[in-house]
Amino acid sequence: MEHYFTNNDNLKSEKRIIKYSYGSFDFSFVSDNGVFSKNKIDYGSRLLVETYLKNKKEITNFLDVGCGYGFISVVLSKVLKVKGLGVDVNKRALKLAEKNALNNNVSVSFKMSDIYENVKEKYDLIITNPPIRAGKKVVLEFLRQAKEYLNPEGELWVVIRKDAGCKSIIKEINTLYKIEIKEKSKGFYIFVAHIA
Predict the structure, then answer these.
(1) Hey, which end of the chain has fewer CB within 10 Å, N or C?
(2) What residues form DSSP beta bridges with 87?
(3) CATH code for the domain in which residue 59 is found
(4) How many domains does the chain have?
(5) pTM of the entire predicted model
(6) Residue 167 DSSP one-character state
């Protein structure tokens, strides 16, 4: 099984277009084999973006960790009119993300980074649909280290499936953050974490 967080240069390319609308905004995304949720916008990612936009604060920048082909980054940048950075380990996904930012006319940049390895700044918002299949240890790294890259009033927004150990993950990071569950739908939990 090819995982979306591995790179396989020999994987056959079969690009496809995915459409998405939010309010008066229409988006078009190019997707391909070897990336997460290649055939449709993942329900968890959609729920995360839409829940965040319903509860948003004013922000000047954001970081999308595990950005894939750029769905979250592109939508947030367009709707909020802010700059963002998306990071991922998947080279093919990052190339698609750059194309998707260009096609949707937004100012988001993308960078190859193993979690926060190449992240230098601090952000008002860190948002992630973490790669559950990479294992709980990796997901906890995503979440624990986020506080080092958040501005003092910054927020960490996360989507995790209930059956992927959401409750135990929240329990493990509870000492680092003040956590509030914002939405539950179809087995997905959306939570926001502030530095405790």
Answers:
(1) N
(2) 65, 111
(3) 3.40.50.150
(4) 1
(5) 0.92
(6) H
